[in-house]
Design a protein that fits this description.
The protein is an alpha/beta fold. The protein folds into 2 domains: about 5-260, Divalent-metal-dependent TIM barrel enzymes (TIM Barrel), CATH 3.20.20; about 270-375, Jelly Rolls (Sandwich). It has helices at about 15-25, 50-55, 75-90, 110-125, 145-155, 165-170, 175-185, 210-220, 235-260; strands at about 10, 35, 65-70, 95-100, 130-135, 160-165, 190-195, 195, 200, 225-230, 270-275, 275-280, 295-300, 310, 315-320, 325-330, 330-335, 340-345, 350-355, 360-365, 375. The strands form 5 sheets. The protein has an 8-stranded parallel beta barrel with strand order 1-2-3-4-5-6-7-10. A 6-stranded antiparallel sheet has the order 11-12-13-20-15-18, with no helix packed on it. Strands 17-16-19 form a 3-stranded antiparallel sheet, with no helix packed on it. Helix 2 links the parallel strand 2 (about 35) and strand 3. The two termini are about 50 Å apart.
């Protein structure tokens, strides 16, 4: 699976019901498919999920997960069980658990014991269609790289996933996050993409974390879980939504640009018109280039496409089959198989098939976001 196919999700603490409503109402406008809820956004409804759905909407697809903190004593286990039941009721896919105990108070044996307890809880969650995922966290029992290895070597396979939080790992002294991804790809089921710098969490792209190798490692292992922007910089909902989406999309686009991608015949985006069709093979929208658009055009015999122009790029057209008459500004060119024409930016143009067979052409543009304007026909 390509990283560009992973669901983008968002998580941010909110200070009031109005701020929470703004978050719930607007996250999709920025390209996110769901939210991972902080405790303050759902905790008062933990025993009445129907009330939560009634007050915050029945769009259950919006809730990618809930984040819950606590211990693993008798009271903590009961609280986690209630969180799992709540997640099942609102159809959240994940329960992300932050183990609220200081790392300084535990040893490796405790971490192994915690792995066994959470394995049992994870099995319970799976029966209700929910996945339990542990969030390694600064000053939590699973904090250092060695703790991660210890925990998942003791956990029962398939019962507890790994939520990888980039900022908490850096804060905890883990620098080779890409290697953690490679080594624990089989349990990695969630990511919290968050930046860190000057001793604090900050907006994505403003800290010191180098995200390129992290995204590259996720792509390498075929990661298919959520890419969740975990916004804790304090910049607010609207700013956090916008900046986080732009940053993550830029990282994914940059990764796509560095990876060779093949588009098989028939796999393009086929757009039909009365005169024929265009099969788009490469573009920014298809996430297989950041600098080019390329397609294959078919114009039916005896037909012509509309007169149009491209205000932001030149066009290169190459004839593969048939014979056409090409209008370029005030010029007209008859073109046969093997002929190529370059059309300057902003010049009106179109093509008409002269042969008794459909004409086929390739078209290329030096931008990943080709823009087109059709010329209005005289009334």
């Amino acid at each position: 699976m390509k990283l560009c196919e992973c669901p983008l999700q968002f998580s941010i603490p909110t200070g009031s019901d109005n701020e929470q409503r703004a978050l719930f109402a607007s996250f999709r406008q920025y390209g996110y498919s769901g939210l991972q809820l902080k405790g303050g956004q759902y905790a008062r409804y933990i025993d009445c999920p129907e009330k939560f759905i009634g007050e915050w909407g029945a769009d259950k697809a919006a809730f990618g997960g809930i984040i819950v903190g606590g211990g693993l004593d008798k009271e903590g286990i009961a609280s986690l069980r209630r969180a799992i039941e709540f997640a099942e009721a609102i159809k959240a896919a994940l329960v992300i658990f932050c183990h609220g105990r200081s790392r300084n108070t535990v040893n490796d044996d405790y971490i192994r014991e915690a792995a066994l307890i959470l394995s049992e809880m994870g099995l319970t969650a799976l029966k209700g269609g929910v996945k339990l995922s542990l969030h390694p966290h600064f000053d939590n029992p699973v904090m250092h790289r060695r703790d991660i290895d210890t925990f998942w070597s003791a956990a029962a396979p398939g019962t507890v996933g790994l939520t990888l939080d980039t900022a908490h790992m850096v804060k905890s002294g883990i620098r080779n996050i890409d290697q953690v991804i490679l080594d624990h790809k089989d349990v990695l089921d969630n990511t919290h993409i968050k930046d860190y710098g000057m001793g604090r969490f900050c907006a994505l792209g403003t800290g010191t974390i180098d995200f390129a190798p992290i995204f590259a490692a996720l792509e390498t292992v075929g990661y298919s879980g959520p890419l969740c922007a975990d916004e804790e910089s304090g910049d607010g909902v609207a700013t956090g939504l916008a900046l986080s989406s732009a940053f993550m999309c830029s990282q994914i686009d940059a990764l796509s640009a560095k990876s060779a991608q093949i588009q098989r015949r028939g796999q393009g985006l086929d757009i039909k018109f009365p005169w024929g069709h265009i099969e788009w093979l490469v573009s920014g929208a298809q996430k297989n280039s950041t600098v080019m658009t390329f397609g294959r055009v078919t114009i039916k015999s005896g037909q012509a496409n509309s007169v149009h122009r491209h205000p932001n790029c030149d066009e290169i057209l190459h004839v593969l089959k048939g014979r056409i008459l090409h209008l370029t500004g005030e010029q007209r060119f008859e073109m046969n198989v093997g002929d190529t024409i370059s059309i300057p930016r902003g010049v009106w143009h179109n093509a008409e098939t002269l042969s008794d067979v459909d004409a086929e052409m390739t078209i290329a543009f030096y931008t990943a976001d080709r823009q087109t304007e059709d010329r209005a026909e005289p009334s």
